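Project standup — Tuesday

K.O.: blocked on the structure for the chain from last sprint. Re-posting the sequence here as requested.
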Amino acid sequence: MIIQIFGARSVPARWSGFDTTASELAVRFAAQGHKVIVYVMPKYALPEKPRTFKGVELRYVSPIYGKNTETIFHEVICSFVGLFTKADINYVLGCRTSWTYFLYKLLNKRLVFNTDGLDFARKKWGKVARNFLKFGYKSATLLTHYHIHDNTHIQDYFVRNYSRKGVFISIGGYEYKSKYPEILKSYEVEPGEYYLIACRFEPENNIHNLIEGFIRSSSQKKLLIAGGANYKSKYEIELRKIKSEKVRFLGPVYIPYHIEELHYNCFAYLHGHEVGGTNPSLLKAMGCGNVIIANSTLYNIEVLGKENGVYFDNNPDCIAERIKYVENNYEKLILKKEEIIARLNKFYNWDYSAKLHEKYFKYMMGLEKEFEETF
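H.V.: unblocked you, prediction finished:
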């Protein structure tokens, strides 16, 4: 097969969940003997801008860079450039600019969208932007019958609103065991003496509530926050105004093994995401066997498992109560570690995801009579 992948910023992944998805799947497709092409942005790529990565062809397309312009312009340009490649599968990560692929339908090119989460539900968007993004989802259902959802609750949304079921194929993660615990010294912390938040600084990730809840809990531990935004935002500025000697902002952590060691050695991981589907940061925490205090959304409960997490209603008082609960019941909660890792390895691993993707692509081509779902 010749597979084109659209919608990522960089391969190897350096920023977003889509970058991770593209990177992990593309190299596995290439290892199976398929020709794989991924369209990326030069700004987010490795400094040397390699033409290939582990057998994957990288095509660099420069958009008009800007917080609200680069994604749209990049996909518009890439969708046009991609028309001239005779691909068997055109795989688009996200529906935000699905309308730009209308020529693929007119030319009978096989098109499949990864629907990701419900982007229009993000708090940062105003009414116009939300309607624009909803139009993207609607367009994706008109342009093709083929859709990949990484969470069954996203799949249910498409069935209810567009009568398009598609297929449920989750993204993946990795089990991680500590290799370089000395890394913690550079952050001036010891194992088990801190809580961790690791995510992009977006309002729907509820970092503000997590920080306030932590402060109200009166915990004697520290709170480390790893992450940032690709463009300076009012939300990030407001977050950094919060003053507490126990709260530390680390910024984005890209050095190999650093974020993994911060995860593995934390006392507990705080996960505030409210917009599904499946969040890579939650999978990373699962792979490290963390005690996880998570927002009680259907998406998070599906991924982590109802009995494997400590769930909170999205307000600081409830978060504070859950933090106190964890500190009073830690020895019992840590026993869930092996069960959490086993769940990740069974349902949320990249080899399994790539296998299901490949079978679905062959189903689209008429080479398979049926496809499989994660569960």
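K.O.: great, moving the ticket to review. The radius of gyration is 21 Å. The chain has two domains: 2-172+349-364, 181-346.
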